[in-house]
Every structure is written in C-alpha cells, then in structure tokens.
Request: fold
Amino acid sequence: MRQSADPPDRRRRRVLLDLCHIGADRQGIDAGAELAGLLGLDLIGVFVEDEGVICLAGMPFARELRLPTHEWSPMAAERMAEEFGEAAGRVRRMLAERSASLPQGSGPARRT
Reply:
C-alpha cells in the first residue's frame, strides 16, 4: 500500500454515495450522511445516467413493460432522458436536505 506524501490533515477524505442505486431510498442517503458526519468527512453524491439505455430506447424495436397495466409499449429516448433527469433531481434534493443537517464540524457537504 502506497502512502501519500501529504500530511494526514492535507489528504482529501470523503464518503461517496452512488445515487443511481439509492433511488428514492432516503435511508441510504441518511446512512451516508451520518457516516460522513461522524467521521468528519466530505459527503459527495454521484448520479450517472446510463447512456446505453437512452440509446436503446431510440431503437425502433425497443419495448418496455409498463406497470401496473402490464402492457408492452415502445420506448422513447426523450422520455427516458427526462426520467433520468427527474430521478437525478430527486436524489440531489434529498442529498442537499440531508447535507444541510450535518454538524458544522463534520466537513463540507458537496452535492453533485
């Protein structure tokens, strides 16, 4: 294991949350924020849109099963991109709300 040349107080330490897989689970964000607060670390959230899904949605043969109707319907790339954007906005707001409640001494909260 390679040691950093920087003194320990100069190294960046953070808790990184994968917001794509947390979805609407506030408990996942709460756990990450609590851990960051207890350890005095930065809290960073990352949401990565799957461009492959958006490209697939643009193909004429792509279909999706809609719930709760259980009907197959064509996928629309524009709608998929909008849904990714809405999901990112939701988890970004949840992270911002939770980050605002971190103690002042726990390190800066960062939202992405």
